[in-house]
């Protein structure tokens, strides 16, 4: 098996993190044509009046469906989950194959060249979802970003460059894109809570990369707001224990009001 085949198998099967999960029926979210990602996003509605929202971004090669399914398992009745789908783009790391990706990836190490324009454009698209939710009555401090792998990376970057103080960030098995642009590139939101989780057996995004990210984040936001949890035996995926930690974090920072 050649390098390209390894990357093809590895990126498709591993970087998405939720390919094995059942699909949830897609929910069209009303008149959202002005927010392209919302038009086809999977939405898991709350069981009562929605006073908070979590926007969760999937990994490379995946879609919002699998993570919507996973998040349904930890749902809180007053919280809406929004799981948009990344558009298909050619990914350099995977021999320019077309696949759902938030931005191009040239490599998976801290020193790799990065798709700065693509990362910034993707962040603006996520900020457009935030603005849409704000206009519909959910204030920024009741909106949380989250994501897995590339989606977690984008959630971190978006939250740290957002003009609003958001409720928090759930960053699973990921890194901070354009890390050399921080802390000067930050919008100055020092007190945003961040939950970082990482599998100790992750060979795609090694746990030390996650640890380096946690240390970098402590220079951008209040270090007391950073929680970095690692999970023995966990590869580049999630686990019930990790999702329990995510639920606790959401409950803490998006309580019923």
From TrEMBL:
Query: Where does it reside?
Result: Cytoplasm
Q: Which residues form the Phospholipase/carboxylesterase/thioesterase domain?
A: 40-253
Single Gene Ontology BP annotation: fatty acid metabolic process
- Entry keyword tRNA-binding: no
Identify the stretch annotated as signal peptide in this record.
none
Main location group: cytoplasm
- A Gene Ontology molecular-function term? palmitoyl-(protein) hydrolase activity
- Pfam families per record: Abhydrolase_2
**Any one GO CC term of the record:** cytoplasm
Q: Which SUPFAM superfamilies match?
A: alpha/beta-Hydrolases
Query: Which Gene3D superfamilies does the record match to this protein?
Result: alpha/beta hydrolase
Report the superkingdom from the record: Eukaryota
**Catalytic activity, per the record?**
1-hexadecanoyl-sn-glycero-3-phosphocholine + H2O = sn-glycerol 3-phosphocholine + hexadecanoate + H(+); S-hexadecanoyl-L-cysteinyl-[protein] + H2O = L-cysteinyl-[protein] + hexadecanoate + H(+)
What UniProt keywords apply to this chain's record, in alphabetical order?
Cytoplasm, Fatty acid metabolism, Hydrolase, Lipid metabolism
Look up the EC number in the record and give it. 3.1.2.22
Name the family. Answer: Belongs to the AB hydrolase superfamily. AB hydrolase 2 family.
* Name of this chain's protein: palmitoyl-protein hydrolase
* Taxonomic placement: Eukaryota, Metazoa, Chordata, Craniata, Vertebrata
């Amino acid at each position: 098996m050649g390098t390209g085949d390894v990357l093809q198998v590895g990126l498709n099967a591993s970087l998405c993190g939720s390919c094995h999960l059942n699909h949830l029926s897609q929910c069209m979210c009303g008149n959202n044509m002005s927010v392209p990602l919302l038009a086809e996003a999977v939405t898991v509605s709350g069981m009562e009046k929605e006073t908070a929202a979590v926007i969760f971004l999937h990994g490379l090669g995946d879609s919002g469906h699998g993570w919507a399914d996973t998040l349904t398992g930890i749902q809180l009745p007053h919280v809406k989950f929004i799981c948009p789908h990344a558009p298909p783009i050619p990914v350099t790391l995977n021999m320019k194959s077309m696949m759902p990706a938030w931005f191009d990836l040239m490599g998976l190490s801290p020193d790799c060249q990065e798709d700065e324009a693509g990362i910034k454009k993707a962040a603006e698209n996520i900020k457009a979802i935030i603005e849409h939710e704000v206009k519909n009555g959910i204030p920024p401090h009741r909106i949380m970003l989250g994501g897995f792998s590339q989606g977690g990376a984008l959630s971190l970057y978006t939250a740290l460059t957002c003009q609003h103080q958001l409720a928090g960030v759930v960053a699973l098995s990921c890194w901070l894109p354009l890390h050399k642009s921080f802390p000067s590139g930050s919008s100055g939101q020092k007190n945003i809570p961040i939950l970082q989780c990482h599998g100790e057996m992750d060979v795609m995004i090694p746990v030390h990369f996650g640890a380096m990210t946690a240390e970098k984040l402590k220079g951008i936001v209040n270090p007391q707001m950073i929680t970095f949890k690692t999970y023995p035996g966990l590869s580049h995926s999630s686990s019930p224990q990790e999702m329990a930690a995510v639920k606790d974090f959401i409950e803490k920072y998006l309580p019923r009001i």
